[in-house]
Design brief:
alpha+beta; single chain; 2 domains; six-stranded mixed sheet; GIY-YIG_endonuc_sf; 255 residues; GIY-YIG endonuclease; GIY-YIG domain-containing protein
Length: 255
């Protein structure tokens, strides 16, 4: 069977998958499984071993479809939610695996980071940005790696990249600027004052669904792409992401 996954072409049979799994041990199943010769494996583990792709590059749904086409049985595990009912409430735990599936959502976001140039400090000690287009898109501050090898990034989105850069530049003197602008302004100035450098990159074009251009004038489109970029950075080892996750608190922990 021929198929394309994460932009790469493959040709597999069920026997090829079995041979590639030889010598590997199934990991614990979090949600979906595929049964190979009576043994249940996590779907994405099998696809990663078979293709050599990193798991973050493909979706579980597409993996399940491909494995089913190869003749393997695919199912869902029995993991319960971690939330416990309140004492005395009489509420039973909810098993997501027992709920009816209404529809599958499979979203792929693709974009490239373009090098805009370095950020420096001007004579007034304010951040000086490279020339930027007045278009919507994503942006990224790359603070480089420190002495411990930790890579620091900040990723954002804006309907106007040039105007957003101006917000960061003037955040100290203009108290009407949002808290994030003031916080990142301080990080920029503190970093550059040490003699270190910051590279600024932008992504003014985003595609979805196999190459279809996304209208980045829509905040929902920008936030989707921004969240994908932040998640990739957050799950990359030795990377510190300055974006604050409201569920995790300040971005101090580094994996």
């Amino acid at each position: 069977m021929q198929f394309t996954l994460a932009g790469r072409s493959f040709e597999f049979t069920a026997d090829i998958v079995r041979r590639k799994l030889a010598g590997h041990v199934p990991e614990s199943i979090q949600e979906h499984w595929v049964e190979v010769d009576g043994v249940r494996w996590p779907v994405k583990q099998v696809m990663a071993i078979a293709t050599g792709l990193e798991r973050r590059r493909f979706q579980s749904q597409s993996s399940r479809r491909l494995l089913e086409r190869l003749g393997f049985s695919v199912g869902q595990g029995k993991a319960l939610t971690s939330a416990s009912p309140r004492s005395g409430s009489g509420r039973a735990r909810v098993d997501p695996a027992a709920l009816q599936v209404l529809e599958y959502v499979d979203v792929q976001v693709t974009f490239q980071w373009l090098k805009a140039g370095p950020i420096t400090l001007d004579a007034e000690g304010l951040p000086k940005f490279p020339r930027l287009p007045r278009v919507p898109g994503l942006y990224r501050f790359d603070f480089g790696r420190d002495d411990d090898g930790v890579h620091t990034l900040y990723i954002g989105e804006s309907v106007n990249l040039a105007r957003r850069a101006s917000n960061y530049r003037n955040a100290k003197t203009d108290q009407s600027r949002q808290r994030t602008s003031r916080r990142i302004h301080k990080e920029i100035v503190k970093h550059l004052q040490t003699g270190a450098s910051i590279e600024f990159a932008i992504a003014p074009h985003v595609t979805m669904h196999g190459g279809e251009d996304t209208d980045l004038r829509l905040k929902s489109a920008r936030c989707l792409a921004e969240s994908a970029a932040v998640l990739i950075a957050q799950t990359t080892p030795s990377t510190r992401v300055l974006n604050i996750d409201v569920d995790l608190g300040e971005p101090d922990a580094v994996k």
